[in-house]
User: Fold this.
Amino acid sequence: MAQNLLLRPFRSIPLKQLSMPLRSPPSSLLSRVPAVSHCTLLCGSLPATAARAAATRTFSTTQVFRDTFNVQDGDDFQDRVLKSQKPVVVDFHAQWCGPCKILGPRLEKMVAKQKGKVLMAKVDIDDHTDLALEYEVSAVPTVLALKNGNVVDKFVGIKDEDQLEAFLKKLIGP
Assistant:
């Protein structure tokens, strides 16, 4: 935890500044760490791995996150769901819903197994009540299967992985 507190100021420093070797402490670098002395910072109180972690930022996405997205508004739903060339599974959920917290990750996992043949849109009914009303969502979780902008299948409640796989196979077709 102490290392996290020490590294927090470095998270806002540009990568170029962190990647160059430190022969003498640059004032711009040390001015962001008022509670730590120059010697403490440079004399090795931080393990080498923590120092390297502060200097390196990586970003990657997995297949799950490329196939799954949160709907931002009605226009986003129109563009990414209704106009999609691929079939789309729409998960209507709520933050307070216990079954939704179980179904959501399970459904994401099953969509990821389809390797890009189907997309998953997540719609929070508290944020997008208009979409919930338009698609007659009366209980959560409700999952719709859309193909070419039309609802082709629907279920309400939790399903196990086998049932979800059958639901997706039916949507994708031969």
Q: What stands out?
A: The two ends are 52 Å apart (CA to CA). Residues 27-46 have pLDDT under 50 and may be disordered.
